[in-house]
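Human: I'm a chemist; would you kindly supply sequence and structure tokens for a protein?

Assistant:
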Amino acid sequence: MRNRQLHAALAAFAEEAAWQLAAAAQDGAEVPFEIVESGGHRRDTPLYCYRPLTADFIRERLGLLGRLPSYLPAVHALSAAGGLDAYLAAHGEERCAAGGRARAETALRVFLTTVFADSTDFQLLPERLDRAVEDLVRRSGEGRTLTEVAVPILGLRLLGEELALGDGLLLARGDLLEDVPSDAAWPRSGDEPHTVALLSWEAAPGDDAPLDHARVRLRRLLVALRLYDDAAFACGAAAWARTGGGAWHGVPLGLPGRPPAAVGTLPCTVTPDEEDELRAFCSLVSRRTPRSGPLAWSLARFEQGCLQADPAHALTDHLLALRALLEPEGPSAGRLAPRVAVLCADAAGRTALRDRIAAIVDLERAAVAGTAPAALDLGGVAAELAEHLRAILRDVLCGHLDPELRELAERLLAQDGFEQPTVA
């Protein structure tokens, strides 16, 4: 499946690039040449021939090629394929930039150069295209074992066909996938297909076990999705894996499922126009999520709150997450409400939000004590608090807010002269 998708993306780009390069040559752009020995001699005189420097011609037009409609899909397909270091090294590109996007763009340039090596008319020959794709796939997979994992992502609905997230992770509509188990592509009831996460991982000797790698990648995906939208995201109850293109078999990923209260909630719908935004956001969250410290702890509590079946427990988790970021002195300081308000509301709305957060803190205490009114919608209160927490976490990870949130909030409070609430 991976090779077929990669071949289609590369073929589409090669076809458009062939047209662009041929048009440039026909308009008078000259392909440079170098003189090299042909290997034969005549009466002790070496024979020479002209060799077109196709690579230089292509490199000079990378800006034009980068604007072709098929360019980004090809880059994303290469990023998803993984294993590009061996391919680049085999073609003398060991010093390629470390970023995944940069490696994929360099690999695409090398691939195009291979397809049109020694060409001056840039005619796309199917046999040369196939050889170039085969070379890329073979070299990028040398010494590695390909494992694929397929799992439904609940709470996410794609209107486009697929969304490549890079480094072997792809989201796709289940009805468009031909070679994944039907239980991964379709729910047991209902006529709308799942959105399926397909993860391809080529493990080299000494790498993490493929399923351990899958758990980490899928958990990072879920963290990003929960920060992106308030839908009830989760992995499906069952996942499938296969190695080396063999048969699919069920595997336990050990990731939390969807809480019963979330069943039937509206999904997050992503249109084709929104795919680039989601792709960039998931990449940013994956790169900037810390492994330790208050922000990492707060993210973990936020996740736990999203998975709670009991809204009172979710409320407590979200308050703990906010306190880890904004009230390290402890609840007795009474500083959480104004700090949340100054970060999440404009000047006109800060007093109302401060009082609302203070009221939510009181409601949580009542819920813990068992004295909260029976008619109170704790689920709605927990969702309201989660939205403020989500906004703060998202802005910190995206770089819009200083990670030292307590100090930032106090500076803003001092600058605005915002009145502090009276602590009871």
The radius of gyration is 27 Å. The longest helix spans residues 2-26.
